[in-house]
Design goal:
Layout lengths: L4 E11 L5 E8 L3 H5 L5 H5 L4 H9 E4 L7 H5 L3 H15 L5 E5 L6 E5 L7
Antiparallel strand pairs: 1-2, 2-3, 4-5
Length: 121
C-alpha cells in the first residue's frame, strides 16, 4: 500500500498566539495541483521564494492541536523548522527520482545519474 501521509516532529516547534508549543504533525504527499496552483498566487509572482510557504501550508495536514495550518503559521516557524519541513517535503515527494545510466567521463565506470527536473542549468 502506498504511504501518503508522514508524521514528523519539529526540532524547535511552532508557538501559537496563546504560547502553546506545537511540535508533532503530519505531512501528506503533494499533488500536481499543490505544485502548480501556487504559481498563480500574487505573493509568489512578487517573490518566488514564497512558493515554499504556500506549498507547505497545503501539504501539512496537522500541527499539534491547531485547527488548520495556513501561510501565517508557516511564516511564523523558526528557520530551523522551516528547513526541516522543506527537507521532509523533498524526501517524501522525490524519494524515487528517475535515474538514467551513464558512464563517468573521467574513469569510465558505469553509474546511474538522478534526473532533477527542478534544476535549470
Amino acid at each position: 500500500m502506498l504511504q501518503t501521509e508522514y508524521e514528523f516532529t519539529l526540532p524547535k516547534g511552532y508557538i501559537d498566539v496563546h504560547g502553546t508549543l506545537h511540535k508533532s504533525g503530519t505531512m501528506r504527499l503533494a499533488t500536481a495541483a499543490d505544485e502548480i496552483l501556487p504559481l498563480r498566487d500574487p505573493r509568489v509572482q512578487q517573490n518566488a521564494a514564497y512558493i515554499t510557504v504556500i506549498l507547505l501550508s497545503r501539504v501539512i495536514t496537522k500541527l499539534g492541536s491547531l485547527p488548520a495550518v495556513d501561510t501565517k503559521v508557516i511564516e511564523s516557524l523558526f528557520s530551523m523548522d522551516l528547513a526541516f519541513l522543506q527537507d521532509l517535503y523533498q524526501r517524501i515527494n522525490h524519494e524515487n527520482a528517475p535515474e538514467y545510466p551513464a558512464v563517468c567521463p573521467k574513469c569510465g565506470e558505469k553509474i546511474t545519474v538522478p534526473i532533477n527536473f527542478t534544476m535549470a542549468e
